[in-house]
Amino acid sequence: NHHKAVGMWDLPENDEELAAAVLKLHQNPELRRELAENAFNYVREKFNRDTIAEGFYELLVTKPSRSPRP
Known about the structure:
The chain is mainly α. It is built from three helices and no strands. The chain is elongated and about 60 Å long.
């Protein structure tokens, strides 16, 4: 599986890294466009109704059923 970047990650509580990431995005419109497009495609692929319903169905069908305890 090839995973495309959908955002920028920085350490929490690190103001310098956050500022650098914001400046990088501000100065690079192509990177902003690429990250936005990748994020949109990721959400469209992973969070659509058909995908969610299929995953739920598989969970119900493949999990062994437990008998209620007496």
